[in-house]
TrEMBL record, chain A:
Residues 72-261 form the ABC transmembrane type-1 domain. InterPro entries: MetI-like, MetI-like_sf. It is found in: Cell membrane. One of its GO terms (cellular component) is plasma membrane. The lineage of its organism: Bacteria, Bacteria division TA06. Its main location: membrane. One of its GO terms (biological process) is transmembrane transport. It holds the Pfam family BPD_transp_1. This is Carbohydrate ABC transporter permease. SUPFAM superfamilies: MetI-like (SSF161098). Belongs to the binding-protein-dependent transport system permease family. It is a multi-pass membrane protein. The chain crosses the membrane at residues 12-32, 71-95, 107-128, 140-157, 194-215, 240-261. Keywords: Cell membrane, Membrane, Transmembrane, Transmembrane helix, Transport.
Length: 276, 302
């Protein structure tokens, strides 16, 4: 009796989990299958759940019409230069906050955390005006420089640096190391997993960022992918075959990154939550 | 020495965070349009906000959005995390599937959902049709859900079905993040608490309320806070999926951040938009403090 009850509840658990998983998957399935339908098939009602012909050329067409080559290059350039800045500034900043003694350290750190609490939409107007003063509107500078510092990443890395014992530094000093050398030659190699985590957050953030690039760009030449896709939506409005193909293209690189590093990504998000 | 290490951080924060915020504060006291600051007008922008019916409408919509998306997300995510924590096979696969929407961009998601919600050709209406349920016009429906459910007999109209469509999408997209956080929290609860509860004769329901829930409360608090803050900043789905013009039908999906964006970049009223930004900031700050005070009394730290 007990055994049957147990199995029944297991059965219900799996049933609910699978139902939920189906709901999570269906929009992706719908995006990909719409992307390979003919325009005529796509607007049939009731819709066909499996495409009768696979029109793979829709992807090529979307790629060309949406100017995706340009957008993806722009995005990769923005993402990797931002990442370089984020790593550089976070490593140095976290080191100062974790290992160096100076006056006002705690106050500075707390006020930085406070600034981080201010939500992004509050910045868009003043940030835009400051960039206008600098003459940076519609330049790569506007897309990269303001995002090269992430207080959140400094915080993560500082916690990690703090966990590394100070004796290591004292030993390094005996071997003739100064702070700079100790940081880059010893601490950084010891922090690889944390730096990978930071890099993943940063790349995902750059790839998906929307509101800021929407506001500070005017031309296709520097537009990143999300803004390009959003404008493509406005141009095409009802051509869901091309829109789905374009969306699929825009989603694939991140999904690949996700599958390559999913354990790392999921555990990073989980940890960020628990510590946050 | 330390200053040298902190130089990049300090410069960027000063120029792109600190100065803009101060600047915005100053701007919010000016009449400031495309020609620059024209007049110092004291609190006029703020007073105008108080009398701005569109702002109140947008704020109301934002509250509705938050009021529905946060609890739905919270309850469903907790439920799924608890199911996943029952030593199920294929945990990794399920977790991956639930997490997939989190890393997918809101723009692609908005496109796909606009297509799914399509009133005539959408997948959702096809499914409803198949189940012999009435089809809906989703993003084009301006009537409130309470109004629709009671045939207009309920005194409050409620959020429009269009706004609720955005709510459902946000739950779908944000769920996985909270599932992962809850799951990590659940896995941190040692088994012996449950063993002790069982020995004391607690059933599953009792052990959930007396063991899981209190021990999970710091995680729950974090999830609640982050989901609320995020929900107040909703923008892209409104820009992408509603209208034209965005915020439609009949302004029922206009939210505070969209209204702020519209004032700044469509009407070029930087002064007014800056004042709106400060009001938004104050609202989020207040909510954070309220939630902290209310929850702190109930959060149990081990």
């Amino acid at each position: 009796m007990n055994k049957i009850h147990f199995n029944l509840s297991k059965f219900v658990i799996y049933l609910l989990l699978i139902l939920g998983a189906v709901i999570m998957i269906v929009p992706f399935y719908w995006m990909i299958t719409t992307a390979v339908k003919t325009p005529a098939e796509s607007i049939k009602f009731p819709p066909t759940l499996w495409p009768s012909h696979f029109v793979w050329s829709n992807f090529a067409k979307a790629w060309k019409e949406a100017n995706f080559g340009r957008y993806i290059l722009n995005t990769l350039f923005i993402a990797f230069t931002t990442l370089a800045g984020v790593l550089f500034s976070s490593i140095l900043g976290a080191y100062a906050f974790a290992k160096l003694q100076f006056k006002g350290r705690n106050i500075l750190f707390i006020s930085m955390l406070g600034i981080m609490m201010i939500p992004m939409p509050v910045y868009i107007v003043p940030g835009y005006l400051v960039l206008m003063k600098l003459g940076w509107i519609d330049t790569f500078y506007a897309l990269i420089i303001p995002w090269t510092v992430s207080v959140f990443n400094i915080f993560l890395l500082r916690q990690h640096f703090k966990s590394i014992p100070n004796e290591l530094y004292e030993a390094a000093v005996l071997d003739g190391c100064n702070h700079w050398q100790f940081l880059w030659k010893i601490l950084v190699p010891l922090s690889k997993p944390m730096l990978v985590t930071i890099s993943i957050f940063s790349l995902i953030g750059s790839w998906n960022s929307f509101i800021w690039p929407l506001v500070v760009t005017n031309s296709d030449k520097i537009r990143p992918i999300q803004v390009g896709l959003a404008y493509f939506m406005q141009e095409q409005s009802t051509n869901y075959v091309l829109l789905s193909a374009a969306s699929t293209i825009s989603v694939i690189p991140l999904i690949l990154l996700f599958f390559l590093a999913q354990k790392q990504i999921i555990s990073s998000y989980a940890k960020s939550g628990i510590k946050g | 020495m330390a200053l040298l290490f902190l130089l990049p951080v300090i410069v960027v924060i000063l120029v792109f965070r600190f100065i803009p915020i101060l600047y915005a504060f100053v701007i919010s006291f000016y009449k400031w349009g495309i020609t620059g600051p024209t007049k110092f007008i004291w609190f006029s922008n703020y007073i105008k906000i108080i009398h701005d019916a569109v702002f109140w409408r947008a704020l109301g919509n934002t509250f509705y959005y938050s009021l529905f998306s946060v609890p739905l997300n919270f309850v469903i995510a907790l439920f799924i995390a608890i199911l996943l924590n029952q030593k199920v096979k294929g945990l990794g696969v399920f977790r991956t599937i639930y997490f997939l929407p989190v890393v997918t961009s809101i723009i692609a998601v908005s496109i796909v959902f606009k297509w799914i919600y399509h009133p005539r050709m959408g997948l959702l209406n096809f499914v409803l049709n198949f189940l012999h349920l009435p089809t809906q016009t989703w993003l084009e429906e301006s009537r409130g859900i309470f109004q629709m459910m009671t045939g207009g007999h309920f005194p409050i109209k409620g959020p429009s079905l269009a706004l609720m469509s955005l709510v459902f999408m946000s739950v779908w997209k944000g769920l996985g993040y909270n599932v992962v956080i809850f799951l990590a929290g659940l896995q941190n609860i040692p088994d012996y608490y449950y063993d002790a509860a069982r020995i004391d004769g607690a059933n599953r329901w009792q052990s959930f309320w007396n063991v899981t829930f209190p021990l999970l409360s710091p995680v729950s608090f974090y999830v609640l806070l982050m989901t609320t803050i995020t929900s107040f900043q909703v923008f892209a789905p409104v820009w992408m999926m509603t209208g034209p013009p965005p915020g439609g039908p009949l302004g029922t999906t206009n939210v505070v951040v969209y209204y702020l964006y519209e004032n700044a970049f469509t009407y070029i009223r930087y002064g007014y938009a800056s004042a709106l930004a400060f009001v938004l900031f104050m609202i989020i700050l207040t909510l954070t403090l309220i939630q902290r005070n209310v929850t702190e009394k109930k959060v149990y730290y081990e």
